[in-house]
């Protein structure tokens, strides 16, 4: 079973174009089964503001108290997950939404409960649950909410990039795609079609990759290995895959031979 994991950030959900869904359909036609993991940052921020709960971040991670966790789960499971499933079905793609904590699909442990609260890092993925959907060519749409390995019934907020990476590794996916609002990595305005790990480090050091792109490429790098030879940064506004041709920046652990 050929699996492709795609991570869709909350900021791009409203920008996904018909061409993007054409790309998903092309994957299915060519024998790949997509798995989607999504975030929901902007919608979470709006809901926290509505409830007058302050948003706090530490090293790029949302500090998640008990009240914040309730809002995070409400938004991700009840809003953004539903939105993405509806979009897929609108484009004639069969999808099922999964809250990551359901059936312990995603399991996590605290990173630092004292400083971050209910924020976890994935320690295990119940891949059998996901694979049951894949066998029937159903697209799983997974929230980055995990079941706690340390407290029965507790849920944990997980960075969606790292959740996608964990799912990709567990499924031994052929590629993990990070869907953004840009075509890929741009250096001096030009799309970099392929880069190695050392290229990425050079781009960061030289300032070509900066700001919000840094965690994206670092998460992409974390997926390499375990049978996954390439990860990609692609646009949600275009067909990232069509007739065997990928569009975006492919990142590989192997150095190019000149």
Can you walk me through this structure?
One of its GO terms (molecular function) is acetylglutamate kinase activity. Its main location: cytoplasm. It catalyses: N-acetyl-L-glutamate + ATP = N-acetyl-L-glutamyl 5-phosphate + ADP. With 258 residues, the protein is of the alpha/beta class. The protein is built from eight helices and 18 strands. It has helices spanning 18-29, 41-50, 66-90, 113-116, 127-135, 160-171, 197-205, 213-223, and strands spanning 2-8, 32-38, 57-58, 61-62, 95-98, 106-110, 120-125, 139-142, 145-148, 155-157, 175-180, 186-187, 190-191, 194-196, 230-235, 241-242, 245-246, 249-252. β16 (241-242) and β17 (245-246) form a beta hairpin. The model has no long low-confidence stretch (mean pLDDT 92).
List keywords for this structure.
single chain; 258 residues; alpha/beta; Carbamate kinase; eight-stranded mixed beta sheet; four-stranded mixed beta sheet; 18 strands; 36% helix; globular
Summarize the model shown:
The chain is α/β, with parallel strands linked by helices.
């Amino acid at each position: 079973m050929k699996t492709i994991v795609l991570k869709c950030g909350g900021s791009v959900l409203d920008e996904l174009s018909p061409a993007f869904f054409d790309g998903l359909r092309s994957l299915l036609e060519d024998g790949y089964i997509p798995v989607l993991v999504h975030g929901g940052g902007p919608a979470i921020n709006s809901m926290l503001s509505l409830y007058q709960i302050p948003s706090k971040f530490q090293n790029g991670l949302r500090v998640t108290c008990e009240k914040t966790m309730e809002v995070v789960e409400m938004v991700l499971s009840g809003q953004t997950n539903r939105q993405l499933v509806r979009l897929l079905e609108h484009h004639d793609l069969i999808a099922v939404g999964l809250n990551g904590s359901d059936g312990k699909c995603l399991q996590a442990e605290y990173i630092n409960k004292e400083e971050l609260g209910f924020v976890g890092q994935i320690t295990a993925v119940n891949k059998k649950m996901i694979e049951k959907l894949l066998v029937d060519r159903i697209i799983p749409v997974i929230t980055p909410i995990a079941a706690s390995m340390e407290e029965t019934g507790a849920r944990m907020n997980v960075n969606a990039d790292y959740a996608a990476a964990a799912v990709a590794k567990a499924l031994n996916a052929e590629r993990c795609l990070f869907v953004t609002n840009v075509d890929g990595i741009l250096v001096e305005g030009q799309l970099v079609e392929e880069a190695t790990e050392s290229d990425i480090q050079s781009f960061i050091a030289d300032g070509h990759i900066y700001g919000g792109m840094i965690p994206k490429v670092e998460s992409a790098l974390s997926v390499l290995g375990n049978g996954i030879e390439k990860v990609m940064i692609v646009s949600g506004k275009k067909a990232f895959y069509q007739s065997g041709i990928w569009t975006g920046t492919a990142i590989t652990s192997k150095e190019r031979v000149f």
